[in-house]
């Protein structure tokens, strides 16, 4: 039951973390470019 809960949570959290890291990467890239 605990393992199933963990897998379900990671299944939901992984795409969110991936998108969040992608947003942070884009944020830094756009900030460090010359205006």
Characterization of the model:
With 35 residues, the chain is mainly α. It has one domain (1-35). It contains 1 helix and no strands. The protein has one helix spanning 2-32. The mean pLDDT is 86.
Write the layout of secondary structure elements.
Layout: H1 2-32
Radius of gyration: 15 Å
> What is the total domain count?
1
Q: Oligomeric state of the chains?
A: single chain
* Total beta strand runs: 0
Low-confidence segments, given as residue ranges, are none
Largest sheet: none
Apparent shape:
rod-shaped
SS-based class? mainly alpha
Proportion in helices? over 70%
Transmembrane segments: 12-30
Keywords: Membrane, Transmembrane, Transmembrane helix
Which structural traits does this protein have?
mainly alpha; 0% strand
Summarize this entry quickly.
Keywords: Membrane, Transmembrane, Transmembrane helix. The chain has 35 residues and is mainly α.
């Amino acid at each position: 039951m605990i393992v199933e809960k963990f897998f379900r949570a990671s299944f939901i959290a992984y795409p969110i973390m991936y998108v969040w890291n992608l947003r942070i990467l884009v944020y830094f890239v756009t900030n460090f470019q010359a205006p």
